[in-house]
Structures are given as C-alpha cells and as structure tokens.
C-alpha cells in the first residue's frame, strides 16, 4: 500500500463506516472572498499599466432569475475593478443578431472576456452560437473548441461552474487521486467538464444522467458525489455513502422565492461527510472564477 493510498483510506471524509457521521458544511463564501481579493489586486495592476479588464455579458431574455444573476456579476466586477458591459439584445433577438454581436465583441481588443447568458429566445440554440466567441475570450468555457481542449488536457478556460466545483474540493482539502467520484448530470456547462477536470486529477469517474437505471446503486459507492441534474431533492440519503463529500450544483427556485439544490440537504445531514450549501456553496465561487478568468485573459495568460 502506497503512502497516498494510506492517506486516502484514513481521511475521515472519505470513509464508509456503518454509522452516521458528522456533516461538515463546505461553504464557498470564504473561498470566493479570497479569490476576489486576488483578482482585485491583479486588475488594479493591469489597469495601472493601461489595460482595464473588461467583461461583456450578452443577454437575450427577460427571465428575472437570469437578470438577477447578471446584476450580481456586474456588482462583483465593479468591486474588483473589472469593467462589465451588459449587452441586452432583448428577448426577441434572432440567432443572427446574437452571433453578430458575439463576433463583434470577439474582434474588439478592449474586450477580454465574453459570456453568453441563458436562457435564449425560443428556437435559438446556445451550442450553435457559442462558437462565435473567440476561445481566448471564452471565460465561461462555452465554445466547443474550449470544451475540446479541456477534454484533451490542453490550456483552456473551463466553464466557471465546473471550475468552481474543483476549487471548492481543493479549498476543503478533499483528496481526489484514486478515489471513486460520481457526477450526476452530463451538460456541457457542468457535468461533462467536471468529469474531465476530475479525470485530470486522477480520480476514477462515473457519469450518470436521467436515463441511468438504479441511480442510487451507482452513487452509493462514491467518495465524492457531484450533483448537477437540475432536479430539486433528487439525491437523498439512500444515494450517499456515509462519509462521502457531496457537491450540490443545483439551483432550483422554491415557492417562497428562495433556492434549493438537487440534494435533500436535511436528509443527508449526518450521513455525508461534507456538503456544499445552496445558496452559498458553488455559486459565489463561480462568479469569482468568472472574474479571475477575465483578468487572466486581459493579462494574456499570465498567472494572477
């Protein structure tokens, strides 16, 4: 048995005793604050040299939850010294209008990061438009070229939400190499890129989705369980191995105007070894990483 295997076996968060365990809240607020502090310093240094980082967010929807998210990005950008331009094309925008604006922003040397916000108007497909975003400015990893480079292990911006999952696991010192990890969800935004990032860290990865038979049978052996299915309360205590770390990426609106994850948090309390809260887990880290990607693009690949 190697030292690494010994460490993994004895890690209290990644064991499976036949008893309940204490559940640690793996919040993202502290990590997001740390990231924003570093981004603020890097943005100030770039601005002093004559280059203020600039993020453009293209919007073509009247969805209020989407508008709230875009406003939160703009506020966070302003606090860190990044200029954020919200390009609102209206809910009636056609695909050619959106593509033309994405292409124009890609060609603008003053723009360093571009993000296409969803949802899009009916009949307009995100995957067909994302290719208009220049890969070097694709700070949310939407362009198929970015996703392909990520899968090949080449330099690329990963989708910010997927990157936030790995950042949270690292922040809370969760070991990955050699461990069984399960991803529930296969979207291009979270599920697939998270799986690729986990593979790059030498985790053993299983991807599940809505057609998976007997989901619990596949999730129960997982040391680390990442859930991004978009179904409130999908994961219950029966799906979780005692001591496992569970990352809940779900953001489902509740009847009282709040947010709930894909994991039944109350049900897995005392069973999971660690659980990210909703809200306050993956979300704030995602925004911070989107800003960090923008600054890195402005710095032309220099580490910030």
Describe the protein.
The structure is a single chain. The strands form 3 sheets. A 6-stranded parallel sheet has the order 1-11-8-7-5-6. A 3-stranded parallel sheet has the order 3-2-4, sandwiched between helices. Mean pLDDT is 92; it is low at 1-10 and 15-20. Strand 9 and strand 10 (259-260) form a beta hairpin. It has helices at 3-10, 29-48, 64-80, 95-107, 126-129, 144-151, 160-171, 191-200, 215-219, 265-268, 282-298; strands at 24-25, 54-59, 83-88, 113-116, 180-184, 204-208, 224-227, 245-248, 252-253, 259-260, 274-275. Helix content is 39%, strand content 14%. It has 304 residues and is an alpha/beta fold. It has 2 domains: 51-145, Rossmann fold (3-Layer(aba) Sandwich); 160-284, NAD(P)-binding Rossmann-like Domain (Rossmann fold). The chain contains 11 helices and 11 strands.
Span between termini: 38 Å
Integer tally of domains: 2
Main β-sheet, spatial strand arrangement: 1-11-8-7-5-6
Q: Give the count of helical stretches.
A: 11
Radius of gyration, rounded?
20 Å
**How many strands, what sense, and barrel or not for the largest sheet?**
6 strands, parallel
Average pLDDT value?
Answer: 92
Q: Which class do the helix and strand fractions yield?
A: alpha/beta
- State the order of secondary-structure elements, H for helix, E for strand: HEHEHEHEHHHEHEHEEEEHEH
Query: The CATH topology of the largest domain, please?
Result: Rossmann fold
- Indicate the low-confidence ranges by residue numbers: 1-10, 15-20
What share of the residues lie within helices? 25-40%
Outline: globular
CATH architecture of the largest domain: 3-Layer(aba) Sandwich
What is the percentage of strand-forming residues? Answer: 5-15%
Extended strand count: 11
CATH homology superfamily name of the largest domain: NAD(P)-binding Rossmann-like Domain
